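Researcher: Here's the sequence for the chain we discussed earlier.
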Amino acid sequence: MSSKPTMRDVARKSGLSIATVSRVINYPGEVPAETAEIVTAAMRYLNYRPNINGRRLKMTHTRTVGVLVPTLANPVFATSVQGIEQEANEEGLTVLLTSSNYDPEREMGAVSALLNNRVDGLILTLANADNNPVVDLLLAEKIPFVLLFNQPERADIAAISVDNAQSAFDITNAMIARGHRSLVMVAGQFESSDRSRQRYDGFCRALDQAGIEKKHLVQVRFGETDLVEPLRDLLLGPDAVTGIVCSTDMLAIAAISACRTHGLSVPGDVSVGGIDGISVGGLITPKLCSAVQPTQEMGRQALAFLRGLIKGQTNPQSLLLPHHLSDGESIGSIRGSSRRRSSTRV
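Model: Thanks. This is the structure I predict for it:
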């Protein structure tokens, strides 16, 4: 049986010095991103895990927690961080915050940087909770952590989320109930978000139960705000859809804009629904119909769970908080859509 890989093995595999590998592991913010990616890829290939536990044995509690989210540009994450900080303030804790920009390659470096700042535990939103070297490392080193928005399949990980698949199922069913049979899901790239993939699963389940065989999918990069070209054929082609289900509210707002650019009204010609329940969705016209998550409460619950783990709790808890559909105006009956489209195709 082969021995465990060492830092020297990582250096040899990456073609870099041991000193460089050490800096990537211990001070990732001080090395170029390209160098960090090379070292991280070598660590993953070799299944190398840094020995963080040795450093942590020398620590006392710092009353500081680390938080990793994909981005703060999406209000859903900003609001969850607000919930974390509110709970932290009540408990006299300090929050250190960083983001991955939806890049799985950046997660290990970001977590290493937080651990180097001697946080007592971590709250994380990861690209993929069930196949992730960050999770493997934290479990192996017995570092307290809670996943936020992720729904891992394994039961030994603390997690706070809503039911992602059910959220998409419900918003899709709201369109089907109004007569829509030609639907597309616009989703963030699956490799960057297991939530996106789970929501697509819910979309497909709703279509299957309604006997709808054709399942249109458009995947876009997170942060994409221009859906005019990605949706062109599905909005104007011979098999034009009448409903757009989006994996986030930010994508739904972009989809409404794309519909208008193509001369289509929402919900007169096309119905649009989102998932998240960000406040700006209620300020646009038409008011967005969304599967609303209790985002701020999710953040508060995540920190409460993390505090229990830091204090020595050994049975990680997971919780799915309830969601609900907002009373938006962006989903309408298929009848108006059919009349308008038939008149524009003559």
